[in-house]
Specification:
Order of helices and strands: HHHHHHHHHHH
Number of domains: 1
Strand content: under 5%
Helix content: over 70%
Largest sheet: none
Number of helices: 11
Number of strands: 0
Shape: globular
Length: 227
Amino acid sequence: MTGAATPSRFGEGPLSRAAALVYTLLVVELLLVLTTAPGLVALALLDRDVSNLPLVALCAVPLGPALSAAVYALHHQRPDLTDLHPARVFWRGYRRNVADALLVWVPLLVWLTVLAVNLAHLPSAGVPRWWAVPLVLVGAGSAVLGAHALVITSLFAFRLRDVVRLARFFVLRTPVVTLGTAGLLGAATALLATSPALLVALAAVLALALLRGGDPMIAQIRKEFTA
């Protein structure tokens, strides 16, 4: 006869793991809001005008390191309810990744701002309206590439040029990840346009979705490009 199954210790069952995830998401959400608060406040005070697009990008600068720290904290979260330190892990990720995250995030913001300004001024520039299609496609591709790069730099210690190469490589290598990231960015853009407050409230959930969607890419990088 086989022996009875060993019961799970407290903190290791499915309900405990779910509670641990919810608690981690709440803490990460709070820290995301805290670290991006200056930009959020300034953004709320700006008029919705095309001329303010560069200022909108400036307000979004703190989001890069904060999102990187959130991805790091969620990736390193412990499923054991009795051993949770999400705030400590978030700040460790923030300190570890802030410089590299900015190197990825700021050029992406500048490039997307240039595209957005050009899109906004197409009629006044006398450019055919169909030019909006390639500009939007370039912007979407750049955003997906930037999201890949941010996830990679959040979890691995590669040089910037290697991060960019890997991000570009995995856009085609892992199409499921690319399509999932594109869909997630599309949803975030729709929320930004319709309910910015809801987007802020769901920031940690979106960071988790970005991380989980990128699992195949993360696994391949760990297998093929790390010792």
